[in-house]
Amino acid sequence: MGTKEAARTPSDSGVLDGRSVGPMVPRLLLGARLRRLREDQRISREAAGHVIRASRSKISRLEGGRHGFKLRDVADLLTLYGVTDEAERATLLTLAEQANAPAWWQYYNDVVPAWMQAYLAAEQAASLIRCFEVQRVPGLLQTPDYARASVRLAHPGASAEEIDRRVALRTTRQRILHRQRPVQLWAVIDEAALRRPVGGISTMRAQLRHLIEICQLPQVTVQIMPFLVGGHAAEAGPVTVLRLPGGQLPDVVYLEQLATALYPDKPAEIECYWDVMNRLVVEAESPDETPTILHRVLQET
Q1: Do 175 and 258 have their domain in common?
Q2: Region 230-248: what's the mean pLDDT?
Q3: Is residue 112 part of a domain?
Q4: Which residue pairs from 212-215 have beta carbons closer than 8 angstroms and sit at least 24 positions apart in sequence?
Q5: Average pLDDT, whole number, for the chain?
Q6: Which of 57, 64, 164, 202 is deepest in the core (most CB within 10 A)?
Q7: Residue numbers of the domain that contains 84
Q8: pLDDT of residue 102 exceeding 50
């Protein structure tokens, strides 16, 4: 199967191979390296952008791993930054090629907005995902019926075919929990998400039973933020923080909104959101209590 076809067709197995994580890691590695080279030469983003006929903001997106790379642009930047060693140039140009490689979710490009692509890449490459959700069960933990009801609420004008594709994308993303080296998912869910019967009572009861089962997996930790806690550290809304493998890449903070998403990437901002997540797990009920809480909510639903 060719590269293009592989990108069009998600694997039907429950395991995603190394190619399935997509271009995120090489993109971030190359972006971080280009940033260090530019800063070592004391070259501004404006000056770097001028050389590749681009804006300062594009250089910022390239260095943050939020944009694909043209080989010509990378070669021009390496020349500007004084990189003459042929081996280093070849290595970085190879990274640029990998950073542009198609990923499996490109098969769903018609239902994936541009602002979400960086998140999907990070999600599939992550070694650790920590999230807090208020109104909904996290997407990685949703049943197909719950996902369908959630998609219909978010896209009331969507056709049946579009809804099917959005649900298929969401359920395919969940395979990272079951691959050979599964991602570690640590989710804090507000009690409101458990009490809100998205899709109706039967769909919600099935969703609660699914949560009871999946939180028994060693790679999944679920905590509940009960109403009785009152105020908590993440009152501003849902937060997702992703840690990428290797220890050399910055963590990714993802704040999804109705029609866009924010990716705070300054070190102080990332540290702030880690602090929020750490406070949440202290304020929420212990993971050991989660099955008991879910069983109680299920009986009351």
Answers
A1: yes
A2: 85
A3: yes
A4: 212/291, 212/294, 212/295, 212/298, 214/141, 214/177, 215/287, 215/290, 215/291, 215/294
A5: 89
A6: 64
A7: 21-99
A8: yes
Q: Are residues 124 and 265 in the same domain?
A: yes
| Choice between 182 and 15, residue whose per-residue pLDDT is larger | 182
Specify the CATH number for the domain of residue 34.
1.10.260.40
Tokens 């490009």 identify what position?
Answer: 109
Residue 54 in domain: yes
95: its two tokens: 């990274």
Please identify, among 32, 64, 99, the residue that sits at the C-terminal boundary of a domain.
Answer: 99
Locate 80 and state its tokens.
């500007």
Looking at 99, 123, 144, which one is the last position of a domain?
99
Whether the per-residue pLDDT at 124 is higher than 90: the answer is no
DSSP 254-283: EEE-SS-EE---SHHHHHHHHHHHHHHHHH
Q: In the chain, how many domains are there?
A: 2
Judgement on whether residues 69 and 94 belong to the same structural domain of the protein: yes
pTM attached to this predicted model: 0.77
